[in-house]
Each structure stands twice: as structure tokens, then as C-alpha cells.
Amino acid sequence: MTPRILIIAGSDSGGGAGIQADIKTVTMLGGHAMTAITAITAQNTTGVQAVLPVPADMVVAQIEACVSDIGVDAIKIGMIGSAETAHAVADAIESLEVPIVFDPVMVATSGAALADADTIAAFGRLMRLATLVTPNLPELATLSPPVRPELVEGRVPGAAPATRASTSSARTEGKAETSARTDGDAERLAAATGTAILAKGGHAEGDTLTDRLVGPEGEIARWDSPRIETRHTHGTGCTLASAIATELARGAPLPQAVARGRGFVRLAMLGAPGFGAGHGPMGHQSVRLDAPDAPTPNQITLPLTDFAASAAFYEALGLRRIVDAPPRYARFESAGGVTLSIEAADEMPDGTMLYVECGDLDAAVTALRTRGAAVSDPADQRWGWREARTRDPAGNAICLYQAGEARRFPAWRIA
Question: Which residues contact 316 (CB under 8 A, 6 or more apart)?
Fold first, then answer.
């Protein structure tokens, strides 16, 4: 099944966020992306230069055109543009019985405001329709009862407005204050709307980023991850919401959909192409074979007897060396995302090993054991992978595993 995702959001001329990021995300995750554009923006990595809202009736016409013919399995809502459009969108989708992920976009990564006070006030209706709302901490502070539009740019009441042209105004200033103000806000917002809230912790201080999934009855799950130090963060919120919507359309439980969405965002950040002078776009196109929904062969390890000769051989084929530990080990990456390792033969008693990455490792192990295969219990490895070993009927060594970003982007990656 190809999930059909309707994206209701604004256009980003720079391609880093908005419907451009949404389309790339849905496509890379195997879905079919449809759009209802709410606003046209002129923007790049340094800021938003102009915004032209699309009339509400045209937004609704786009929604109806997609739903009436192609159908829809999930909806992602991003930048709305106006209070009128917010209510029109709510009217158009309230009868659709599909998952809805609402990213309440208020401020661009560059700091430019993308929603006024009236639009923010109208978000309440969309939040009540949503399956999940994904605010960052300043947005959460704004939306949590009582609604506080003065916090839209992450400001405390009475503080001076952030400079719109700054590439750091909304994303790096006041992190400690924002984090302190939002304690308990996710619980209050979930209770008030009857909707699950994913409180994104990127604005908080520290080297560890914490995202919390909170329902009307309290916290459901949380994720702690090391912060990725990069300026290429444009479109992270759009990407996350679209990834979650795609997974929900496949029938994934909400915590699993969030976990997979977070993994996709992190990989896209690590694969950023380095464009622009400000907050650059992520590398959606680089996320290949890293977060498979179904078991996917994406890594093979071969024994070596002469490190230099083997390394030169695979580099001559055009593979890029990404891990280098001579004379015992090296890992190479192909343009398509498959990786190949060479390892000293005396450290490979099972010989050549095919690695099959599993979205649900425990389920894969159970499925093979049900068929009578001998499979080791999954175990965490010091290199960041979780692995289970088995053999196919011909005796070939197979490793079922989960690695996520640790396969192509380990801490010791050299290129």
C-alpha cells in the first residue's frame, strides 16, 4: 500500500521547509504526497522576504480536488496563513476519518513570524480535530491555556521583539527561559484539546534533546537524543510532522510513528548538503535504507586478508570510505545508501555476513522462530547497533539488526 498524504501548508521558495520539505519526506518514506497550498513565501536560508496568502476558497478547492478523486490516508497541516483559512480547512476536513498531524507553524527558523494573533487563536479548532499536535517549546507556550500570542517568537511578556532578519532570533535565544515557562504546558494543552501533544525540545538548553509525547491522561513516551550541532535545521518541524503522518497512514501506533519520524529527521540533518548562508536545508534525499518499515538488506561485511589492497579495490569501484580502522576494519558507503564493510578474517568466524535492518527487530526474530529458525536473542552492541544472529537454510550467516543513524553516521565517521 502506498500511503496517500494530503499536505496543507505554505510553499518555501528555498526548498528547505513547507510543502517542499513535506513532499520530499513523504516521497522518501514511500508515500504519495498531495498538496493544498495555503501561502506562497519568498524565502531562503537567511529569512522570509515576502508572504502571499492563498485565498481560503482556493485552499478548500485544492483539498476537495485531492480527496474526491485520489483519496487520503492521513493529513499533515503546517502553515495556515490566516484565521479564515484555519476555519475553512477545519470545515473541509472535519468529516474525514483519517489521522491528522498539525504542526502549528508560527515562526520560521529564521525568526520571521508566519501567523498573527487571530490565526493563532483559530488554531484551537484544528488542534481539537488533530490526532497529534507538534509544537516546539515557544509554540507550546503560546498555545497552552490561556493562549498567549505575545509568546509567538519565544519572548516573555514585555521583552523586546526579536529581529526578523536574524538567523538565530527564534531558535537560539531564551532557551532556558522558554524551557522553564513550558513546564506542564503539554499536559495542559492535551487536557484542553483532548489531543496528543508532541512537545519538541529543540529550544531547551543542553547537549541532550528531549521530546515528550503527552496525551490527555498524561505522558505517553519520551525520547532523549544527543543534540546534533549543525546550522542546517530549516524544515525540521515540517519534516517531522510529515514523517509521522506517513507512518500513521500505514497504521503504525502513535509512539512508533513518532520514533520513526524522529529518526528520519536526524538522518536528514546529518545528511545536509551544506547549502546557504543561514539555516540551511536538510538532506532528505540522503535518507536511504536507514529507517526501513520492512526488513531491508543494506549492509554486508566481507573478510579481508590485505587491508590496503581491499580498501583500494572498493574505492576504485567508487565506494566512499566512511569508517577507517586499519588494518582490521573499514566501512564504505555507496551512492545508493548501501554500506559494505571489510573486517579481518580472523575476527569473522562466520565468514561473510549479510545485515538485514528491521523496523521491528523483535517481531522479525519472532517470525523466524515461528518457522523453526534458530535466532539469537537481540543484544545491544558497543558500536550502537542492536543485533540478532541467524543462518538461512543454506547456512549463510545473517544478522538482523537495528542501527538507524549509527550505520552511515557513527560518531567515528571520517567523511
Answer: none
Q: Does 24 participate in catalysis according to the annotation?
A: no
**Distance separating alpha carbons of residues 279 and 127, to the nearest angstrom:** 28
Question: For residue range 13-46, what is the model confidence (pLDDT) as tens digits?
Answer: 999 999 999 999 999 999 999 999 999 999 999 9
Query: pLDDT of 148-183, one tens digit each?
Result: 555 444 433 333 333 322 222 233 334 444 444 456
Of the listed 38, 41, 195, 233, which one is catalytic? 233
CB atoms within 10 A of CB 153: 21
The sheet with strand 218-226 has its strands ordered as 47-53, 32-44, 4-12, 74-77, 100-102, 132-133, 196-199, 208-215, 218-226
Q: What is the pTM of this model?
A: 0.85
Q: Is 235 a catalytic residue?
A: yes
Which residue among the candidates 10, 78, 81, 235 is catalytic per the annotation? Answer: 235
225: Cβ contacts below 8 Å, ≥ 6 apart: 208, 209, 211, 262, 266
> Residue 279 pLDDT more than 50?
yes
Q: How confident is the model at residue 294 (pLDDT cuts 50, 70, 90)?
A: confident
Active-site residue (options: 238, 271, 276, 339): 238
CA 340 to CA 338: how far, in whole Å?
Answer: 7
Helix residue ranges, H only, 7-146 = 18-28, 56-69, 83-93, 117-129, 137-143
Is-catalytic flag, 30?
Answer: no
Say whether 238 is catalytic: yes
